[in-house]
Amino acid sequence: MTAPHSDLNKPKRKTGSRTISWRARLSLVLFMLVAAATVWTTNRALTHRFTESTRNRAELRLALYSGNLLSELRQHAIVPQLLARDQTLISALQSNDFSLSTQRLISFVDEIGAASIMLLAQDGRTVAATDRNRLGETHRNAAYFVDALTLQTPEGAIQRAIRATTDWTALPPDAYLQGEAVMRLETRVPFQGWRMASFTTYSSVRERVNAVLALEIMGFAILLALAFYALSRKTALRMALFQRESAELRVLNARLQREIAERERMQKTLAVAEQSLAQSSKLAALGEMSAAVSHELNQPLAAMKTYLAGARLLLNRNRPDEALASFGRIDDLIERMGAITRQLKSYARKGGDTFSPVNVGDALASSLSMMEPQLRQRHVKITRILPEEPVMVMGDRMRLEQVMVNLLRNALDATKSVADPEVEILLAAGETATLSVRDNGVGISGFDELFEPFYTTKLPGDGVGLGLAISSGIVNDLGGRLTARNGQNGGAVFEMQLPVLVDGIEAAE
User: Fold this and answer.
1) CA distance linking residue 352 with residue 349, whole number of Å
2) Strand boundaries in 126-242, DSSP class E
3) Higher pLDDT residue, 490 or 8?
4) Measured by CB atoms within 10 angstroms of the end CB, which terminus of the chain is less buried, N or C?
5) Does 495 share its domain with 445?
6) CB-based burial of residue 221 (10 Å sphere; 0-12 exposed, 13-18 middle, 19+ buried)?
7) Residue 99 has pLDDT above 80, yes or no
8) Would you call 97 helix, strand, or coil by DSSP?
9) Do the domain assignments include residue 334?
10) Are residues 358 and 449 in the same domain?
């Protein structure tokens, strides 16, 4: 039965495999954290770098565009000033005679190199033009006509109005146009206070950053794939080793199961033998006590015969009240004989195998109810200290009540010689359910033989000494123990401890 113990050390490799698996998971988590931190750092660094590069190129383009615009504006900036000095056009505007004005403008086209020239009256009407099809057109709302009128209005009034309706300068450096983030750059154009704004999207920056990040992520993915490949190879080797060990373990387990089955069979046989031995011991004890029982029963029978003869004589003498008193004594003797036979029956009966949850408080209440007539007759003061929550144990309620009745009857007998008998009952629940029954009697002597059958300190006729022995056996069958001691202030204390039932599981095994 001890040979397989040397083989039981083989399964310890499973602990190593678990350690490797734990280390692999930790390495994977660290790798993912390092990869995420690297990608995040790269993204920030490249985004900043490519944004600055894009900003520099946008500034160069803005400078180029503003220079081209200024050059284009300055190319024809002198034309209106030259035409404004022409006496022919001045005379035509003063006399409203524009018959020669168109021909005069046509003569300037080749000299100036302009594509088209128009002369507008104060009401915005075209009075002369190199393109005769445009004569008579109204340009009152045209921008160039409105700009020309700025010379006749308070300085900057119309310019401020236009700037208020389309003010691009109010946008922040990084703004959104049509839902897309853009980079805004601004420069001054030295022409009537103009400003030029440039808007560049971040798409090129994002594309370049994403390209680098894609390469970086691909590299991490390749490293991760290689790590998984190496781990899978290692796992395959470990699995092959595990399968070989499993085959050995199956053989070992089969042998152990056979040994366990044999042990269980032997334990069951031993338990049956112990129970049979205990029952045989009880029956042997019953045989030994037959003489004592015979004596205990013969005394009430002899007394009953005497009381019956006396009652018959009293009836013949016409004294029925005294005859009824004799019958009452006979009834007490019958009750005593019944108690003796009940104790013998309980002691000889085997313990039940089926238990159910029992509320100790309810069982105590039932026991006190059964003992109430005797307690009231003796004027015994009962003090109960019970917890608010129910105390549950697993057992047989009838047998548990039998133990409590025996303890109460024992306390009642112990206080016969006390003027003010008191019994204190304390129920507490901790690791075990503890029921304490304390009396103020004379105390206990002979602790070693207290729970032995037929041991009693009572007077002959008061008991045969089976109550505590039966109670101790019942408590042991329920998985608990019954103890006794003398109290600090006198009297005896009996404690019954049973495993507490918590959520269907016994708290103490």
Assistant:
1) 9
2) 126-129, 174-177, 180-189, 194-201
3) 490
4) C
5) yes
6) exposed
7) no
8) coil
9) yes
10) yes
